[in-house]
Amino acid sequence: MRIGDRRVRGQQAVSLAAFPDEAGGSCSTSISIITSASSERDRCRCRSTVPTPISHAAVGFAIAAWTQQRLPTGRVCIVAAACAALPDIDAIGWPLHVSAASLFGHRGITHSLTFALVTAAVATIVFFRGNQWTQGRARIALTLGLALVSHACLDALSTYSVGVEFFAPFSQQRFRFPWTPLGPGSGGVLGQLAQEAVVILLPAVLVGWLGIKVRRRSVPSRAAAA
Ligand SMILES: [Zn+2]
């Protein structure tokens, strides 16, 4: 479904806020476009931060472990983990009754590529401003950007919410991937957490741990070669 102008997009957004649902068509980029609506239960799913921040942070850590040239410092790992969890800061809009279809609604602007770009630049300037970071600053910015983008991509793997606004503020179209392994199952909250642990948390911790291990091993060999 192509939405041509801002006025029509706004109408669609209102509709989504009132009756969010995962149903929708698909576009040529094989990403599902969320277009329509159904039940009260689905409306509640708009207020979910699954995957949880700890899983997002674990993915940020794994990205830091593998994207730095050498063993990543604790600061890089911590800031990358924080960046990966940061987009869900939009949850503060829930008690303020911010519309789910608003630019500032859940999985809106804070989950966009624009937010990732700007936040990565700001975080790099704020946390890595010293001379000791000069050489690796560009790579750190890339790491933080990837950590931020990973959040939106993981959210797009879930059936919670009305989708992710990847291209906000330029488009309010919401997306999710065709494969959505994360969603309300029959096991209640514990079942959902177990599902998230299997799909995201444990693999991320394992990949991050392997990254650190590999980088640690390469330190002595580099020193010997020097
Ligand atoms: Zn999120």
Please, could you describe this protein's structure?
With 226 residues, the protein is mainly α. It has one domain. Helices cover 52% and strands 4% of the residues. The protein has helices spanning 6-18, 40-45, 53-67, 74-85, 113-127, 137-155, 188-225; strands at residues 24-26, 32-34, 175-176. Strands 1-2-3 form a 3-stranded antiparallel beta sheet, with no helix packed on it. A hairpin with a 5-residue loop joins strand 1 (24-26) and strand 2 (32-34). Helix 3 packs parallel to helix 7, helix 4 (74-85) runs parallel beside helix 6 (137-155) and helix 5 (113-127) packs antiparallel against helix 6. The chain is globular. The chain starts with 5 loop residues before the first helix and ends with a helix. The model is unreliable at 1-30 and 35-44 (pLDDT under 50). The chain binds zinc ion.
Write the layout of secondary structure elements.
Layout: H1 6-18, E1 24-26, E2 32-34, H2 40-45, H3 53-67, H4 74-85, H5 113-127, H6 137-155, E3 175-176, H7 188-225
Antiparallel strand pairs: 1-2, 2-3
The chain binds zinc ion.
Please give a quick description of this structure.
52% of the residues lie in helices and 4% in strands. It has helices at 6-18, 40-45, 53-67, 74-85, 113-127, 137-155, 188-225, and strands at 24-26, 32-34, 175-176. It has a 3-stranded antiparallel beta sheet, with no helix packed on it.
Rough outline: globular
- Overall mean confidence score, pLDDT: 79
Largest sheet: 3 strands, antiparallel
Our measurement of the CA-to-CA distance between the termini, rounded to an integer number of angstroms, reads 58 Å
State which percent range the strand residues make up: under 5%
Number-wise, the strands total 3
| Contiguous helical run count | 7
